Amino acid sequence: MSADIGDDGIDSRALLGDFETDLWLPRFREAECGDWSIRLLPVTAARGYWGKGYRTRGAVTLIGPFAESGAAWMSLVPMEVESQEIGVAAARGHTVVLGLGMGWCAANVALNPAVERVTVVERDPNVVALIAGLGIFDQLSAPVRAKIRIVAGDALTWRPGERVDCVHADIWATLLAPERWSEVRRIHANIGSDLLYFWGQELELHRLDAGEPDIAALVARTGLPLIADSRPDYRERIAEAARWWHGG
C-alpha cells in the first residue's frame, strides 16, 4: 500500500483497484481527533453494494465510537461508494447532507451542477475538526467549496428554518436496523424536503417488499419522497444487494 501514499497523502482512488466510479475521491492521510481517526487498512478484496466482487489494495476508513467500543463508520470501499451514487446524482437545489463522515459524500453533492448549496449537519465537533485538519474540502475548486456550509446539530432533531430541496442522510454505522424507517420518517418530518435518499435504503425497501408490481409502488408505500434509480433493473439490483448484505 505504500505506493499509494505520496507527499500529498493517500491516493484513495488507487486503493480501489479494479473498481471504478465517476464520483470524486479525495486524498487522505492518517490522523486522529478525539475519539475519531482516519486509518489506512489492508483490504485486498471487497464486494460492491450491488454484489459484484472487486480486487482492492486497501481502504481509508473513519473509525469512531460505537456502543462501548470503536467501529468503522465509513470506508472508501466499493460498497460505500456505490451506495452513495444514486443519491449524489439526484441531488439538487439546496441539499442537506446529514452526517459529515469522511467529507467525500458532501463534496460530491457540491460538485453536482444541479446543486446550488449544501448544508452539512454534524453533531460531533471532533469529526468536523478531523476533516478540516485533513483539508478535504480544500481539494475542491473555490466555487464548489463555497457551496458547502457545516452546521452543528443532531440529524434526528435538526430543523432547517428554510426551504430544503433534497436530503442525503448517512448517519449510521450499520446498513440495517429495526428503527431505521422510524428514524428516516422523523428526519423527513423535521426537514420536509422534496427529495430524500438515505444510506442503505435499497436494503430497507427490500425488507418492505410484499409483491408490489414495481419499485414506484413500493416507494409509494413508504409515504416518503425517496429517490429511486430510474434504470429498469433497479428492482433486480436491489434483490441482488439484499442477497449479499442481509441474506435476502
**Distance between termini?**
34 Å
Helical stretch count?
9
Order of helices and strands: EEHEEEEEEEHEHEHHEEHEHHH
Sheet with the most strands: spatial strand order: 12-11-10-13-14
Kindly summarize this structure in a few lines:
This protein is α/β, with parallel strands linked by helices and 248 residues long. It has helices spanning 12-15, 78-90, 104-111, 125-134, 142-145, 180-191, 201-208, 215-222, 234-245; strands at residues 5-6, 9-11, 27-28, 31-33, 36-41, 45-47, 53-55, 59-66, 69-75, 93-98, 115-122, 148-152, 166-169, 195-198.
Q: What can you see in these coordinates?
A:
With 248 residues, this protein is an alpha/beta fold. The chain is 32% helix and 26% strand. It contains nine helices and 14 strands. The strands form four sheets. A five-stranded parallel β-sheet has the order 12-11-10-13-14, sandwiched between helices. A four-stranded antiparallel β-sheet has the order 4-5-8-9, with helices on one face. Helix 7 (201-208) packs across helix 9 (234-245). The two termini are 34 Å apart. The model has no long low-confidence stretch (mean pLDDT 93).
